[in-house]
Design brief:
This protein is an alpha+beta fold. The chain has 3 domains: 209 residues, no CATH class; 81 residues, Pdz3 Domain, CATH 2.30.42; 81 residues, PDZ domain (Pdz3 Domain, Roll). It has 11 helices and 22 strands. The strands form 8 sheets. The protein has a 4-stranded mixed sheet with strand order 2-3-1-4, with helices on one face. A 4-stranded antiparallel sheet has the order 8-7-9-10. The longest helix is centred in the first third of the chain and has 30 residues. It is elongated.
């Protein structure tokens, strides 16, 4: 498949699913409450350019390629963005959105973000049921990069991390993720060494990961013993030239037993481009392979092999309860880290450019990088992330967003105590003001995207 077509399909898949699950939330709640839906635009805002009608609802594609929308009869506040108004068609009062009680309007507005959050929970939940949950290693240091951030901080192999950045008895994942969003920032660390607690401070090294500035603590946990099986081999890489094959199980490197993939990667890096002997098991026989690592563009010595999973391969079978807890914790972790990044932003600890804010170009770039590296299955975690962010972002009290419309409902409720209400003209102006804010945010993030390119 041509590369450009692959990227286009990937972008349509991720953004199309995330946006349409949101609009489906509005649609299904309105239908369940007996409101008449005039239009459901799967793609775009503004005038209709193509579609088909089922019952009272016109399912369409619209002219302005910005998101999607669901238009309800009687809801004319956003009519200019939704292909005009529907005041010319006679609709029973009982089916009009505008005549419904505020609690029903609130539920319709909440339906979109709710479905986004449901999707963000469903993805790790289903993944945990099918593949199990990662078996997290204890926070015991297994490998320390020579001269790296952990080495400079005084962390040694065998240390158990008992406090990291104020978090008592942190999991390895908590340590890794907190370091990820704290490049070049001092983090207090307490390690248990020889029965005593030692107070240290680590400053994660500044590095880039898919265009974002992140922190790297430059040590790995002790993963214990796990099979080290070759999952992928890059063409023309040293591994391919030396005769390694997918499915080979690595037993030793230069005569030293390989306990897990992290040890193998560390041994390869330390050996650099010197000749190396890898002992493998292939079809029940032990075979010795001669190879030499090559320096990659990122300054790391590699032989060009990959493994089937990312960092942790050991997984445990999950019950429904365990899978649900894993899904909730995964999403809470994302929200916690997002909040931490914005906290650093407002505290001046991180620049806006380094905050990882991505506009249209940045999102497309990230989707393209993921689909090229990991295929369409690699897009599933990204779909979860975008869906969660879309759901939470839409709850912000910004006009035009669902949170803004909920805010207008609250204002109308307060005004009703004094016998007053907001006119349709004022509501339209509020929505247009919200559109201006959204467009400014898009221009700003687009500027950040382009500045990163140069």
């Amino acid at each position: 498949m041509p590369d450009i077509l692959l990227v286009i399909l990937a972008v349509v898949f991720v953004l199309g699913v995330a946006i349409n699950i949101h609009e489906f939330g509005h649609f299904i709640v309105a239908k369940l409450l007996g409101m008449r839906v005039e239009a459901y635009s799967f793609f775009g805002l503004g005038p209709r350019i193509w579609g088909f009608k089922i019952g009272h609802t016109d399912y369409r594609i619209s002219a302005i390629p910005l998101g999607a929308y669901v238009k309800l009869y009687g809801d004319e506040a956003t009519a200019p963005l939704e292909g005009g108004d529907s005041t010319g068609e006679k609709v029973p009062d009982a089916e009009l959105y505008e005549l419904r009680p505020r609690w029903q309007k609130f539920l319709v507005m909440l339906g979109g973000p709710f479905m986004n959050i449901v999707l963000a929970l469903a993805i790790p939940f289903a993944g945990a049921l099918v593949n199990g949950v990662p078996s997290m290693p204890a926070p015991v240091v297994g490998i320390v990069k020579a001269g790296g951030a952990a080495d400079r901080a005084g962390i040694k192999k065998g240390d158990r991390i008992v406090n990291f950045g104020g978090s008592e008895n942190p999991t390895w994942e908590r340590i890794r993720m907190d370091a990820l969003v704290s490049p070049e920032q001092d983090i207090p660390v307490t390690v248990e060494r020889g029965g005593q607690k030692v107070q240290l401070s680590i400053k994660p090294a500044r590095t880039e990961e898919r265009g974002n500035v992140v922190g790297d603590i430059e040590f790995q946990p002790d993963m214990g013993v796990e099979p080290v099986v070759v999952g992928t081999i890059k063409p023309d890489a040293p591994a391919a030239q030396s005769g390694l094959k997918v499915g080979d199980r690595v037993l030793a490197f230069n005569g030293q037993t390989v306990r897990n993939r992290d040890e193998l990667s560390s041994q390869i890096r330390e050996n650099k481009d010197a000749p190396a002997k890898i002992t493998i098991e292939r079809e029940g026989r032990n075979v010795e392979i001669q190879t030499a690592a090559r320096l990659d563009e990122d300054g790391v010595y590699r032989i060009g092999i990959g493994f089937s999973a990312a960092d942790i391969t050991t997984r445990e079978k999950a019950s429904v309860g365990t899978a649900a807890a894993f899904a909730v914790n995964t999403n809470l972790q994302i929200l916690r880290l997002t909040g931490k990044v914005f906290g650093q932003l407002f505290a001046g600890q991180r620049s806006v450019k380094e905050a990882g804010l991505a506009g249209p170009v940045g999102i497309v770039q990230q989707i393209a990088q993921v689909v090229r590296a990991d295929g369409f299955l690699g897009l599933i975690p990204m779909l979860m992330l975008i869906s969660l962010n879309l759901g939470v972002f839409n709850l912000l009290p910004i006009p035009l967003l669902d949170g803004g419309q909920i805010m207008v409902l609250a204002i109308e409720k307060v005004m009703s105590f004094f016998g007053k209400t907001l006119s349709m003209a004022i509501k339209e102006k509020i929505q247009l003001a919200g559109l201006a804010i959204i467009l400014l945010l898009m221009v700003f993030t687009l500027f950040l995207d382009i500045s990163r390119l140069f």
